[in-house]
Amino acid sequence: MVRGTLRIRRAEARDLPALMNIERASFAPEIQESEETFADRLNAFPGGALILEAGSEGNRNDREDCRRAGNCSNGSNGGNGGCRRSGEPVGYLTAEIWDKAPPPSAEGYRLGHRASERHNPEGRVLYISSFAVLPEARGGTGRAFFCEALDLLCAENPKIDRVVFIVHEQWRAARHIYEGCGFQYTGVLPSFFKDGDAGSDALIMEKKR
Asked: Does the keyword Acyltransferase belong to this entry (predicted)?
């Protein structure tokens, strides 16, 4: 349970369209990952893909707030609007288990890599391949979801002794979430994200369990 009105559940194949909607709403086009990549993650490690979905009571309150603010969309303009239906996915976290953390290289942490080629259920390193929450569902929710999702995955996989992932150097809000969950910076991948003339660095973050 996250903030009482949102809940965590396992992602399923039927969630792929929703996962892609969240992906496109959360990341610039040049660093978005494909539906094929997400499908491979679900197949390789079904237990490592978690969905944050809207709860019914919280959503009634959210809809009322949206109406008062004039932000509700009935879908006639093709937009999603700011109101979420009960059970609608508003965030996701995907992960895989590795034998060990790779050296700090672009290939070691390559976007779009195949989880089916790296995942090992007997490994000791949990790699967070992606994490996102829809912009309209943020405001404290992201941190609760991230921390609770990690606690769940590590409890279910007690061999894990490290959690590792990368984050864009400019994503201050995301970095604040990870720092608040106890993660530290352990490396840099220069110009990893190709989102400008020179690109942006990826920061490696890690936490021991």
From this structure: yes
Contact 96, 41 (CB under 8 A): yes
Question: Looking at this protein, which amino acid is placed at residue 203?
Answer: L
Residues 164 and 129: their CA atoms lie apart, in Å, by: 9
**pLDDT tens digits along 59-105:** 444 434 333 333 333 333 333 344 456 678 999 999 999 999 999 99
- Burial class (CB within 10 angstroms; exposed 0-12, middle 13-18, buried 19+) of 201: middle
Count up the domains in the chain and report the number.
Answer: 1
Output the pLDDT for position 86.
64
Residue 61's region, left for phi above 0, alpha for psi from -120 to 50, else beta, is alpha
Q: Ramachandran region of residue 11, left (φ > 0), alpha (ψ -120 to 50) or beta? A: beta
Q: Which domain holds residue 11?
A: 6-208
Q: Is residue 182 part of a domain?
A: yes
How many whole angstroms separate alpha carbon 110 and alpha carbon 208?
A: 22
Would 25 be classed as within a structural domain?
yes
Does residue 54 fall inside a structural domain?
yes
Please state the rounded mean pLDDT for residues 33-41. 97
**pLDDT per residue as tens digits for the range 112-131:** 999 999 999 999 999 999 99
Mean pLDDT across the stretch 122-150? 93
* H or E segment to which residue 93 belongs: strand 89-98
Does pLDDT of 56 surpass 60?
Answer: no
**How far is it, in rounded angstroms, from Cα 92 to Cα 149?**
9
* CATH number of domain containing 175: 3.40.630.30
